Amino acid sequence: MNDDQKHHDHDHDHEEKSPQAIRTEALESLLIEKGLLSEHAVDDVIANYAQRVGPMNGALLVARAWTDAEFKQRLLSNATQAIAEYDFQGGQVDHLVVVENTPERHNAVVCTLCSCYPWAVLGLPPKWYKDPAYRSRIVREPRALLAEMGLPLDKKIEIRVWDSSAEVRYMVLPMRPAHTEGMTQDELAALVSRDSMIGVEVLEASSRAGQPS
User: Fold this and answer.
1) Which residue in 14, 53, 97, 113 is deepest, having the highest Cβ count within 10 Å?
2) Is 77 a catalytic residue?
3) Of the residues 38, 77, 114, 165, which is catalytic?
């Protein structure tokens, strides 16, 4: 599989739009036409989540958990309470649960009913997260789907899939990459990607260093 194919598979960039996307665009067009919403306001919200809200917020939490054992324990025990001190804007984290990846267990997150997602810590959800194909297959055949998305996992590794809902949303605490012992929290945060916090990517210091998340 070449790089272009992997990128296509990873993004699930289908030409046909999902029913949710079609409804969203229709509603947006109607609100703009009636003067109840402006294109500028829509663009500003998107920019806020994509560039200022996240996934930088989530990356900061991950980096701190990697370097602060006490914070990590609080994050895994009660994530909503642990992140309250940050006063993140954007919502969808009133009932946040963080699950930890280990050498023996890999976690992935989905919302099988719609697209529930912790916006305040992960920013805008990727298109493939809302795709019916991802939402159904990650539950039925997670190992096969993750492999197609560029993440083949050893059969010895247990895979757990967490279903987000209106009541609770999940975020993955990825494993810290090897050979990062001397890095600062800011440097570590730069290694963390949105996809690793959804559970469809494993971080590698050599390939992620210096790249935006």
Assistant:
1) 53
2) no
3) 114
* Residue 164 is a catalytic residue: no
Q: Which residues, other chains included, contact 3 with Cβ-Cβ below 8 Å and sequence gap of 6+?
A: none
For 209, counting Cβ atoms within 10 Å of its Cβ (0-12 exposed, 13-18 middle, 19+ buried), the class is middle
Report, in this order, helix, strand and coil percent for the chain, each rounded to 5: 50, 10, 40
Q: 50 and 125 in contact (C-beta within 8 Å)?
A: no
pLDDT digits 0-9 by tens, 49-73: 555 555 789 999 999 999 999 999 9
Per-domain residue ranges of the chain: 14-53, 54-208
Domain 54-208 homologous superfamily, CATH: Nitrile hydratase alpha /Thiocyanate hydrolase gamma (3.90.330.10)
- The question of whether 136 is a catalytic residue gets the answer no
pLDDT digits 0-9 by tens, 150-183: 999 999 999 999 999 989 999 999 999 999 999 9
